[in-house]
Structures are given as structure tokens and as C-alpha cells.
Amino acid sequence: MMLAHTPGRRQRGLGLIELMVALVISLFLLAGLFTLFYGMKRSYNDAQGLAGLQDNEVLAASVLANTLHVAGYFPYNTTYTSRSTAFPANTTWAAGQIITVGTGMQTLPSGNTTTFNTISLRLIPTADALDCLGNPGTGTAVETDVLSLINTSASPYSLACSADGAAAQAIVSPLGTTGFNPNGAGLANLQVLRVGVASSGGASVNEYFLPANMTTTTWPDARTLTVQLTFFNPLFDKAHTPNTQNTDNQGQPRYLSITRVISLENLAP
After folding, report:
1. Is 7 within a domain?
2. Membrane-spanning residues where (predicted)?
3. Which domain holds residue 189?
4. pTM recorded for the entire structure
């Protein structure tokens, strides 16, 4: 008996429809992976930017505090028996005056100019009392240090110090490319909000003055400075047009500020 021949099925490849469906599914998967990668990268950069900002905040506050703590320091001995003899009067300072506040100007990325404060102080640096750049003194000469802001191509928007009339050197500088804002964690402003004064000549503050209202008579009785540092926010995305509140479309402000009350330890009687 002869069996009837049954033709075998022909194998076919993927059709155009199947290929397009597979391609669309692959694109969805790639888009999901890209979104996940981008989100993780942005979160990492944000965390790095915030960590850098916190480091700069701590560093700037520490530099200010450590420098202001030694304002008026002198080696007490037979030559220097009082602050007035250690820091005599000249054309700029009254006898015994060892700190004052001035003003400066700088241009912000927006093109606007802003006024910041400079803090000038006198001390006799020794191995126990370093100047604002961390250098000890070897003699008995009075040194004048100036804390201010500088904005140059080498040191943009930096907290700086000029020790004894030398060129200002950056102490705290921006984070560079960390975060969206290239000036992130750089200094936009330095303001002395008020000065605490012990008008009775004691150690306890009982009055507060604006720096502009201080005189050579009241400066020797200063005991504290309230200082505000304003930083560029590293998470501020300048690619998105800020609104009238100076925030980007994600609600990130252009500037972030901290305020510290710093005691002038060597101004106590």
C-alpha cells in the first residue's frame, strides 16, 4: 500500500510586522535604561554638588572664625602691656583699635554689581596666633590682614585674604564643573550684618550696631560679628530661565546663605 505524500511546512523568517514590533519594544527598553542612567547620574552629581557646598560652607565659616578669634593678639610682655601699646594709632587706626569693616564691589554672572563687606584686622602673628593665610610671624611687627572677595579668571568668586598688604590669595573657591552651576559653592557675597558691643567695657554684649554706625570709639568695645556668607547654589540650572524669584524651573534658588555669630576673643578686656 502506498502512503500519500504530505508536503512539509516551509520555514519562514521574521516578517516586517514582527521586526517592527521587536524594534519598538527594544527602543522602549533602551529609553527606560537611559532614563534610569540619567536619573542616577543626576542624583550623583546633585549629591556631589551639595557635599561640596557643605564643605565650602564649613571651610569658609572656619576660616572666618579662626581669623577673627585672633584679631588683636599680641605677646603680653614688658614691651606690650596693653592693647593700646601693642597697636598704636596711625593715620588709619585709633590706638588699640584692631578691627574694622569696609566695603567692596563685584560683578555677578547676571551682570549686576553687588556690594560686599571687607573685614580688616590687626594682630602680631606668632607661632600661637597665625595670620589669615596660616603663616606664623617671627617678629613683633603689627600685621594687618584683610578678608574680602575676589573674582579673577584664576580664582572666580572666592573668599580671599590679603596678609600685611600682599596680593589677595583665594582661600575658598568654587567647585568648578561639579553640579549645573560652574560657580557652585563660590562666594557671591560677604556681609557683616551687625556688631555686638559691650558698651560698658566688659565681656558681655549689650548693644548691637550696623557696621556703618561703628566709630573708632565703639570698635574697641566690639565683642561679636554677625556674618552672612552667600554662596552660588551648585544645583541652580542657568539653562532654564529663572523667574522673578531668581529660581530655576525646578525651584532651585540661585543663591544660598548661611549666617554665623563669631566672637572676637582677643577683644575681651
Report:
1. no
2. 12-38
3. 40-267
4. 0.81
In a domain, 32, yes or no: no
| Contact status, residue 196 vs residue 224, Cβ threshold 8 Å | yes
Sign (positive or negative) of CA dihedral 122, 206, 59, 105: negative
**φ, ψ of residue 192 in degrees (nearest 5):** -95, 110
Bridge partner residues of 197 (DSSP): 207, 222
Q: Which residue has the higher pLDDT, 58 or 25?
A: 58
Which pLDDT tens digit goes with each residue over 208-235?
999 999 988 888 888 999 999 999 888 8
The rounded distance, in Å, linking the Cα atoms of 51 and 44 is 10
User: Where does residue 255 rank: exposed (0-12), middle (13-18), buried (19+ CB within 10 A)?
Assistant: middle
d(C-alpha 54, C-alpha 184), whole Å: 11
Q: How confident is residue 256, by pLDDT bands cut at 50, 70 and 90? A: very high
d(CA 230, CA 146): 18
Residue that the C-alpha cell 582661600 belongs to? 171
Q: How far apart are CA 130 and CA 236, in angstroms?
A: 37
- Number of separate domains in the chain: 1
Cell for 245?
524669584
Residue 74, in any domain of the structure: yes
Q: Is 104 exposed, middle or buried (0-12, 13-18, 19+ CB in 10 A)?
A: middle
Residue 38 has pLDDT above 70, yes or no: no
74 close to 83: Cβ distance less than 8 angstroms: yes
Q: Within the chain, where are the H helices?
A: 16-69, 83-86
> Over 60: is that where the pLDDT of 174 sits?
yes
Residue 100 has pLDDT above 60, yes or no: yes
pLDDT at 177: 60
Has residue 30 been placed in a domain?
Answer: no
Question: How far apart are alpha carbons 258 and 231 in whole angstroms?
Answer: 8
